[in-house]
Amino acid sequence: MTPKEIRLAAGMSLERAAVAAGVTSPTIRLFEAAPDAAPRARAKLETFYKRLAAKLAKSTGDTPPAEGPRAA
Known about the structure:
The chain is mostly helical. It has helices spanning 3-9, 14-21, 25-33, 42-60. 60% of the residues lie in helices and 0% in strands. Helix 1 (3-9) crosses helix 4 and helix 2 packs across helix 3 (25-33). Residues 68-72 have low confidence and may be disordered.
């Protein structure tokens, strides 16, 4: 899932996600569109979205996606 899909599946608005992640809503929007375009906030947002995905997976009973490149 993309960061935007994760946020929407969790039922979070851009503004609510920005507050939870400790960034501004334009930064969240930029990160969701192009993660490489938000270098200063990238680590913080990657951590936020990983935690949100794990929380979402736990609530739905799914396993979170594996990290790193997919094995062929």
